[in-house]
Amino acid sequence: MSSNPQVGIVMGSDSDWPVMQAAAEALGEFDVPVEVDVVSAHRMPTEMIDYGRQAAGRGLRVIIAGAGGAAHLPGMLASVTPLPVIGVPVPLKYLDGMDSLLSIVQMPAGVPVATVSIGGARNAGLLAARILASGTDGESAALRERMEAFQAELSAVAHAKGEKLRA
Ligand code: RP5
């Protein structure tokens, strides 16, 4: 747990962590402080609602929520917080994560969840970093510069792969 976390990474069970840790790693690459916790929509609904209601007041700016199966956590958090919520569909043993994806992505109008791909926790972390980088203050600008450098590196790697194939 970092001091003054800006992003809350929560999941329905510790069994989601092998997928969700990629979000924490991505944010770590940008030195964004995060907090990580299990907040189950079905097994601890009262605590889950409290987490969503208190997140903005505690200083969090983005929530990344991952869950598998009947994956109601991201949507329920989005219903009680004004913060942007990024949903990560976690694939389980059956249905290849399609159940998780559809549970998260098909939100009613007015309650948005930014859903990434099945198992796409790294992109969830990178999207959270982009959200934090979109502000007008110096900290946001510095983060934006690092994101641009990261994108340039991605491009350089892709170009190098093409050159290798052409050689
Ligand atoms: C969901 O149930 C969790 O997000 C997890 O993906 C799934 C299974 O949980 P466990 O039975 O492994 O605790 O709510």
From TrEMBL:
Catalysed transformations (reactions): 5-carboxyamino-1-(5-phospho-D-ribosyl)imidazole + H(+) = 5-amino-1-(5-phospho-D-ribosyl)imidazole-4-carboxylate
Matches recorded under InterPro entries: PurE_ClassI, PurE_dom, PurE_prokaryotes
Keyword Chloroplast recorded: no
EC number: 5.4.99.18
Location of the PurE domain: 5-158
Superkingdom of origin: Bacteria
Enzyme class: isomerase
Residues the entry annotates as binding substrate: 13, 16, 43
UniProt keywords, alphabetically: Isomerase, Purine biosynthesis
Pathway annotation: Purine metabolism; IMP biosynthesis via de novo pathway; 5-amino-1-(5-phospho-D-ribosyl)imidazole-4-carboxylate from 5-amino-1-(5-phospho-D-ribosyl)imidazole (N5-CAIR route): step 2/2
Gene3D superfamilies per the UniProt record, alphabetical: 3.40.50.1970
SMART domains: AIRC
Function: Catalyzes the conversion of N5-carboxyaminoimidazole ribonucleotide (N5-CAIR) to 4-carboxy-5-aminoimidazole ribonucleotide (CAIR).
Protein family per UniProt: Belongs to the AIR carboxylase family. Class I subfamily.
Protein name: N5-carboxyaminoimidazole ribonucleotide mutase
Native source species: Promicromonospora umidemergens
The organism's taxonomic lineage, starting at the top: Bacteria, Bacillati, Actinomycetota, Actinomycetes, Micrococcales
